[in-house]
Amino acid sequence: MVALKNTALNMMAIGAMAAVANADQSLEKRYTSSSSGSLVKGGCYYSVPNVGLFTTRMTYSWDNAFTLAATGVGVVQDLVSSLYTVGAGNSPLPRRFDLVNIGVSLLDPSITLTVPGGQTKGPISSAQITTAYDDILYGSVRTVAKISSVPGTTHGFSFYANDTQEIDFAFLTTSSGVAHLTNEQVSADSPATSYQVSAPSDATSAYHEYRVDWLPGKAMFYIDSKLVQTITGNVPTSPGFWLWNNWSNGNAWAQGPPAKDNVLKIRSIDGYFNRTSVLQTYAATPFGCNI
């Protein structure tokens, strides 16, 4: 998978969006270093309990129908839509990520990533958004989402640098009762590190939080704040970006294409990152600050 991004496009959907930045929550405490300078937003760091300190926070919520209806086309600085085609390779069909498949739901407030139903020829029109930056080196990311009940696609909440530097939190909508947690193999002779855990019993009818903490030497996976898997093999060490997608190419993994519209709904994304372009000086004694 070569994940090209349309970095010039910050308007994610032809629809209404709202970006809500959380000011103070119990989740994180902010720190600053006297030598941090202007490269760190507000001169502060974000401390995620039992995880670590991060230079960058990205947080968006799409949970208010009135705001979604009133805002019009929203500009989301940290996220961009994807617009490119992935060849079929060994799969039956190619797939294409299209802007038109990114929208909003007012009845069930969320942004939507849709694979339209009834497609029989490739490329299969799909949907993907990514972070606007590709210099993430470690992070903690929470996605509140509702999985589609329509069989035939893959939902992915993933870190990606290349095919050997990838972390996946994935759902196959043909068998949505299982979450697939993977650090992709860093080389052909590396042992596979892919695990299956039970998804929430109501994953297709209710919103749940799916979280990945990527740290040196390990990736930890959570569902609704409960640690469900730690993977210490094939841990990425290269910077890359985070992505959220819904796709099908008719292969044995994704299956499909879906007979009906398959819609992944995302209600919020909350991410903490260390980025290689952002100065990190929190090794100095930090002290609290307010933003």
TrEMBL record:
<feature type="domain" description="GH16">
    <location>
        <begin position="86"/>
        <end position="277"/>
    </location>
</feature>
<dbReference type="GO" id="GO:0005975">
    <property type="term" value="P:carbohydrate metabolic process"/>
</dbReference>
<protein>
    <submittedName>
        <fullName>Concanavalin A-like lectin/glucanase</fullName>
    </submittedName>
</protein>
<dbReference type="Pfam" id="PF00722">
    <property type="entry name" value="Glyco_hydro_16"/>
</dbReference>
<dbReference type="GO" id="GO:0030246">
    <property type="term" value="F:carbohydrate binding"/>
</dbReference>
<dbReference type="InterPro" id="IPR013320">
    <property type="entry name" value="ConA-like_dom_sf"/>
</dbReference>
<keyword id="KW-0732">Signal</keyword>
<feature type="signal peptide">
    <location>
        <begin position="1"/>
        <end position="23"/>
    </location>
</feature>
<dbReference type="GO" id="GO:0004553">
    <property type="term" value="F:hydrolase activity, hydrolyzing O-glycosyl compounds"/>
</dbReference>
<keyword id="KW-0430">Lectin</keyword>
<dbReference type="InterPro" id="IPR000757">
    <property type="entry name" value="Beta-glucanase-like"/>
</dbReference>
